[in-house]
Amino acid sequence: MTPTELPSTAPREMSPIEARLYHHLAEHASSEADFIASYRELEKAPDTPEAARYLIRLVVEDEERHHRLFHEMTSALGHSVYSTDDPEAVPDLSYGPPTEAFEAGTARFLAAEKADQKQLRSLRKELRALRGQMLPFRDTDLWVLLIELMEHDTAKHIHLLTFIRDHAAARPKNTGRPLPPPKSTAARKAAALLADADGGAAVYMSGVTRRVRLVGDRARLAPLRST
Fold first, then answer.
1. Which among 44, 68, 172, 210 counts the fewest CB atoms within 10 Å?
2. For the residues 29-41, what does the mean pLDDT come to?
3. Could you list the residue range(s) of the whole structural domain that residue 113 is in?
């Protein structure tokens, strides 16, 4: 699925720090798209060897995933301003006690990936030992490279599953520190409106940090992650 094009400028309601991060992510997503187009030109060039064309396609697959991830991070940052959900955005981390089935499934897949890692390592060594002995496939160097790439992918899977396992057992961090004064003009105006309305209602509710934002001429509280 092709990601929806994002605005090149950050939403006005963002703080300066958020706006800089939004600009950096959006700029990187745009440069990734140009990079992918250049890779495709090299892949389709008539003088590109077939083996190189095969490997370039693998690179393009990774670059397309990187482009999608940068787009989803940028989208998540933009939609957090308005507290809206976007199916193309990176979701927020959720907390809560995991089910036994989820814990068992995560442990099972983690063990399987670690076993696969050992098998791939053994296969790579075997292919190197057979170099020059497999007719008509006299050169197994490309095969060894592909196995090495699978090893990298498996290591990535183990990293992801370990994060899932550890995060499921974690709890959100909450230092209880007061929210710092808002820096943006819109946030300061919204804070003043709230102070006039209810004598400065607390902006630290139920353990969740909330920042005051001004949307149009109405003040509201936009949820943010706990710090």
1. 44
2. 89
3. 100-168
